[in-house]
Amino acid sequence: MKNERISVPEAAQMMGATCDFIRAAMQLNLINIGVALRRPGKTRYTYYIYRDKVIKYMEGNDS
Predict the structure, then answer these.
(1) Number of structural domains found in the chain
(2) Is residue 45 packed enough to be buried (19+ CB in 10 Å), middle (13-18) or exposed (0-12)?
């Protein structure tokens, strides 16, 4: 399914990383697997992670 959203734990498992790494790397724009959004005045982030982007990133085609 194109643009299927996945959870932070699922992305971490696919990439062999921790959930904390995925969250931090997304907040700092270090990995291109989706977006980490924080609404103005809020402290928590919402993560939009896409399976196809995780696969492309792992294949080295994350442009």
Answers:
(1) 1
(2) middle
